[in-house]
Amino acid sequence: MRRKTAAPPSxxxxxxxVDPVRVRLPFSEEWxxxxxxxxxxxxxxxxxxxxEMLDAGLVVGADGRPVAxxxxxxxxxxxxxxxxLPAEVPVPFPLEVVHRDDHLVVADxxxxxxxxxxxxxxxxxxxxxxxxxxxxxALGAAHRLDRLTAGLVLFTVRPEERGAYxxxxxxxxxxxxxxxxxxxxxxxxxxxxxxxxxxxxxxxxAAREIEGEPNAETAVELVERRGDLGRYRLTPRTGQTHxxxxxxxxxxxxxxxxxxxxxxxxxxxxxxxxRPLQLLxxxxxxxxxxxxxxxxxxxxxxxxxxESYQAWADDRVR
Length: 318
Description:
The protein has helices spanning 34-41, 49-55, 126-134, 162-170, 243-250, 304-307, 309-313; strands at 21-24, 78-81, 96-100, 104-109, 140-141, 150-156, 175-183, 192-199, 208-210, 216-226, 229-236, 279-287, 294-298. By secondary structure, it is an alpha+beta fold. Strands 3, 4, 5, 6, 7, 8, 9, 10, 11, 12 and 13 form an 11-stranded mixed sheet that branches. Strands 1-2 form a two-stranded antiparallel ribbon. A hairpin with an 8-residue loop joins strand 8 and strand 9 (208-210).
């Protein structure tokens, strides 16, 4: 087996808080030139774009020097370039910092803001915003929240410590508590635990429950009732994609504003900030693996449908 080696540092700076793309030429493939490989690798790019980037000197090696299209293919070589940043609609809600020290930044993310760059959401993400606003280029995400979910997200200041904090989540040593607004059901007045097997297929918007050994577990508790609405405390004991949304829908009380459960209604269009999903990552509690400090952090956000259902349901764009 080929021994893994750490990638060299990027010779290119970030742009608007976004890292350059890094590509490593595979050992398992053979091409005549770097240009031929990149054209094949980046097949989703518009015709001629890769060639133009190479001709303009926008693809560089570890020494920061431009790489020519006709450069011989060298397995294992690292290359970097900046992708064109898409035009994005600004998410018009503040991103609050609830905790910051030499190791961590914990942010209170608004609805509609993605956690990290992905797809059409690149500069309008919590990570890119925080890098720009706090001046911490090395900031990295230790976990993620769905773009439509608001609440607490943990970021690491030092890349060498990121793995320690990610392990907290992978080993379930973080107590996470969520709040959701959903229809009131008197049968859910007593707390219960939901267990099921959830499958999320790549390219399919919604996850689904299937037969088999449970891989998802959520404690659900009705905290308060107002007419036909309930405020629920959700405590996930696993971390499957869309787990809370799937489990609430399966109980017959889908979370208000959910475009996927129980019926896929299509993605929320960029720029449409009406009726946000009424799901909030309310609390994070954990022992810091680096400092040993006990952290008990709470979001300062409120869910709009609970404060004023009519304002939340209003069709006007806010």
